[in-house]
Design brief:
Distance between the termini: 31 Å
Oligomer: single chain
Strand content: 25-35%
Number of helices: 4
Shape: globular
Structural class: alpha+beta
Largest sheet: 6 strands, antiparallel
Strand order of the largest sheet: 1-8-5-4-2-3
Helix content: 25-40%
Mean pLDDT: 94
Length: 156
């Protein structure tokens, strides 16, 4: 599969339940949605509506396509399907192995509405998950709706 655009999130707790909530919501708009959760006991892509495969709780790789045709197009064209505003996407997640790390704060975490200069911060936490969302691009309405949908599911 040809490379798409990665968006990396850091979230509290295990990501699997949020991924399941996101798929449940997304599947309402894609009634023929096909997913792959890497289960060797199942075909590579199964119908979400009919099968509802178990999404791994802590660590997983979930591939999502609108329908069987998009699965085929994914193999031929990668994440950007010619003539389509939508594309397949992937959700990769795992526990964050680092109990502390440096990050750059881009927005005021206190949301005070005052002028703000980005600055380094040390994150110290346990039970965090890293989630990588692979979409066709970073700024289309489709890709942003996938990213925002995953963020909303993680925030619940």
């Amino acid at each position: 599969m040809i490379t798409g655009f990665d968006t990396v999130l850091l979230a509290a707790g295990r990501a699997g339940p949020a991924v399941g909530r996101f798929l449940e919501q997304w599947g309402r708009g894609w009634p023929d949605m096909r997913i792959s959760v890497g289960d060797p006991a199942q075909p590579p892509f199964v119908s979400w509506r009919d099968t509802r495969p178990d999404v791994p709780e802590a660590c997983g790789e979930v591939l999502v396509a609108r329908d069987e045709r998009m699965v085929s197009d994914w193999d031929d064209h990668g994440y950007e399907i010619p003539g389509s505003a939508a594309g397949p996407f992937a959700l990769l997640y795992q526990p964050c192995p680092a109990p502390q790390f440096e990050a750059l704060v881009q927005r005021d975490p206190y949301a005070r509405g005052l002028p703000f200069d980005p600055h380094p911060v040390t994150v110290v936490a346990t039970d965090l998950s890293l989630i990588t969302i692979v979409t066709p691009d970073d700024d289309s309405e489709f890709s942003q709706s996938v990213i925002n949908g995953v963020i909303a599911a993680l925030a619940r």
